[in-house]
Amino acid sequence: MTTTGNSAAQEIAAAAPEGTPVVKALNSIFGHVLAQDKPLDAFLAGDSAEAKARVAAFLESLDLRPLDAGGLQMASVLEWTGILLMGLARNGVGFDLAFGAEVH
What we know:
Blueprint: H1 8-15, E1 23-25, H2 31-34, E2 40-46, H3 49-61, E3 64-70, H4 75-93
Parallel strand pairs: 2-3
Antiparallel strand pairs: 1-2
């Protein structure tokens, strides 16, 4: 169980060998929505620019648009975004939704 301001990704980073980059991604897209082959935004967070670039390249290979939410401290926000998504889905919006961002 994570605490306020902490995330599972941060706990993984703390348990991993020192210097191991951890990137949080793909927790705000339901699998069946991802499989619909629609343009989607994929949010990611991590402290290593190199690791985030590799994850972003992977996301782009899936025809997703990677959006960098910042350092690993933002992982808790992304995890709560997943919880919000579940709440919306279970309370009338349905499970065919995904969050996105308009970027200018």
